[in-house]
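Title: Comparing notes on inverse folding

I've been comparing how different people in this forum approach sequence design from structure. To keep things fair, I'm posting one structure and asking everyone to reply with a full sequence. Here's the target:
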């Protein structure tokens, strides 16, 4: 074999060895591990979480400030419209300290009620009638004695969220929503007075709305003599007749 042939064989063997070595190296190379989140990414997530917490805290502080305004209301009058859930009623309501009067038209029937919140009693009578009935407030099954301040209790008992602002009956309101085991609820909270101007509840697929209109707050909102019972009316105490007191305990 001449020199040229030997050289060709040596070069060929060398090339084959290089190819095999390269192939083995490629198979044995470990897979590239998944990249970990960078410190910048983690920092961004932390900042977003902190921002959400701060916003929630600010919202709660804002609502708490509004509720303080409502706590100072001792005299108020308004119209109350309730629609839904098989109910349709219109009421005119006067409230001053521990006294309340409602004039309610429901399904074509008008009823007057005088509430004494301190004594926990309510006297009810119909126009033109000479007899009224007295019972404990806990036995009263009407909805017209729920004030715009009463709905605020839901906010202290449930986690809520602000969903925007809206003007209702001439008042700019914070719109608040929350849910319980019973259903879902929305409140329109007046920014000026801290009271609920509108309340909406959805229970078992039925929606009922309570809306407060023509609201007057402060001295003079309740005319003198509003809580006087007509002189010709005789009051029958149902607590004595039916033992309603025991049912309230």
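Reply #1:
Here's my take.
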């Amino acid at each position: 074999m001449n020199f040229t042939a030997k050289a060709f064989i040596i070069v060929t063997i060398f090339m084959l060895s290089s190819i095999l070595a390269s192939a083995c190296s490629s198979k044995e190379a470990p897979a590239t591990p998944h990249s970990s989140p960078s410190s910048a990414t983690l920092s961004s997530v932390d900042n977003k979480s902190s921002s959400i917490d701060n916003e929630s805290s600010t919202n709660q502080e804002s609502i708490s400030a509004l509720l303080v305004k409502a706590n100072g209301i001792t005299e108020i009058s308004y119209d109350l419209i309730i629609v839904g859930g098989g109910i349709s009623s219109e009421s005119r309501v006067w409230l001053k300290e521990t006294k309340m009067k409602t004039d309610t038209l429901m399904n074509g029937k008008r009823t007057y009620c005088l509430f004494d919140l301190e004594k926990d009693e309510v006297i009810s009578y119909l126009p033109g009638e000479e007899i009224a009935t007295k019972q404990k407030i806990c036995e009263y099954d009407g909805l017209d004695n729920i004030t715009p301040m009463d709905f605020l209790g839901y906010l202290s008992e449930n986690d809520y969220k602000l969903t925007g602002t809206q003007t209702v009956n001439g008042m700019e309101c914070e719109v608040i929503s929350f849910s319980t085991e019973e259903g879902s609820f929305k409140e329109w909270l007046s920014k000026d007075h801290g009271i609920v101007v509108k309340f909406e509840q959805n229970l078992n697929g039925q929606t009922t709305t309570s809306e407060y209109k023509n609201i007057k707050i402060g001295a003079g909102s309740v005319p003198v003599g509003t809580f006087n019972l007509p002189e010709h009316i005789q009051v029958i105490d149902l607590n004595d007749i039916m033992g309603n007191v025991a049912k309230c305990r």
